[in-house]
Design brief:
CATH architecture: 2-Layer Sandwich
Number of domains: 1
CATH superfamily: HIT-like
Bound molecules: guanosine-5'-monophosphate
Number of strands: 5
Largest sheet: 5 strands, antiparallel
CATH class: Alpha Beta
Order of helices and strands: HEEEHHEE
Number of helices: 3
Length: 123
């Protein structure tokens, strides 16, 4: 939601270089780095440099240039990490029900092995 962005979230601190990350890609609008607790052989987080809480906020408020740069970077990182050929998963956890822990919009890129079904069926 506009106005509710928390500047102290961990990805904001990574963007300000207050804490380190294992960088795999960056440009004027985007940073990509390895997840600190990888769930697959390749697990990369792609984030915009701008202050957006989630995919809805990003899609509503980001400029066309930011949106274009973001999705081009997602594809570029997937290709450069060797994920495109065998396939991979791109996930944007959003809000409480989505299990989002860090309130700065990000896309997880997961790959390097067969990931199985997306969700297990809830009871
Ligand atoms: P979410 O649940 O918000 O979609 O995912 C947040 C992700 O950020 C998690 O997969 C978690 O492992 C990762 N993460 C949390 N803190 C750090 C950190 O300090 N550095 C890195 N590289 N990843 C982090």
């Amino acid at each position: 939601m506009p106005g509710s962005y928390d500047n102290s979230n961990i990805f904001a601190r990574i963007l300000r270089e207050e804490i380190p990350c294992s960088k795999v890609y960056e440009d004027a609008h985007v940073l990509a780095f390895r997840d600190i607790r990888p769930l697959a052989p390749a697990h990369i987080l792609v984030i915009p440099r701008g202050a957006y809480t989630d995919v809805v906020d990003f899609s509503a408020r980001a400029s066309a240039a930011e949106i274009e740069a973001f999705w081009r970077a997602v594809a570029k990182v997937a290709k450069e990490e060797g994920l495109s050929e065998g396939g991979f998963r791109a996930i944007a956890n959003t809000g409480l029900n989505g299990g989002q822990e860090v309130p700065h919009f990000h896309v997880h890129l997961l790959g390097g092995r067969a990931l199985g079904p997306m969700l297990t069926r809830a009871a």
